[in-house]
Structure formats: C-alpha cells, structure tokens
Amino acid sequence: MYLAYGDYRDLMDWVEKALRGLADAIHGSKQIVYQGRNYDLNVPFRRLTIEQAIIANNPVSIRCPCGM
C-alpha cells in the first residue's frame, strides 16, 4: 500500500483502523475470538520495532560477537 507523505506510523494507524472496521462489519463487534483466544481491537495495538519483536519472541539469547 502507498500512502503519500506518510511514514510507517501512519500506515500502522491505517491498518489498525481498517482491522477495527473490518471486525465491526463482519462480527458486529470489535471483540473477536481467534483460535480460542479473545482479542479486543478497541485497545490500541502494541507497537514494536523489528528488533524488539525478535528479542521478545526468540527463546534463544543472541549475543553480538563484538561483545555488545
């Protein structure tokens, strides 16, 4: 998708609003159940960098060879 003069944060906002609208149109609610888990789309989505997402979801600790 292209968004003129927008950055990745604007695109994340758009996707979040689109998913809320889609859930509301299909289910009549912004609260959905997916694979047995409840999701409340009224709550703002958590925003992570790629690095934060990898660290949070990787069970293996990765260390830089440079010692950092």
Can you give a write-up of this model?
Helix content is 41%, strand content 12%. It has 68 residues and is of the alpha+beta class. A two-stranded antiparallel sheet has the order 1-2. The mean pLDDT is 87.
Find the count of extended strands (DSSP E, 2+ residues).
2
- Trace the largest sheet across and list its strands: 1-2
- Which spans of ≥5 residues are poorly predicted at pLDDT below 50? none
Continuous helix count: 2
Order of helices and strands: HEEH
Span of the ends, CA to CA: 36 Å
Any idea what the radius of gyration is? 17 Å
What is the topology?
Layout: H1 8-27, E1 31-34, E2 37-40, H2 50-57
Antiparallel strand pairs: 1-2
Could you provide a short overview of the structure?
This protein is an alpha+beta fold and 68 residues long.
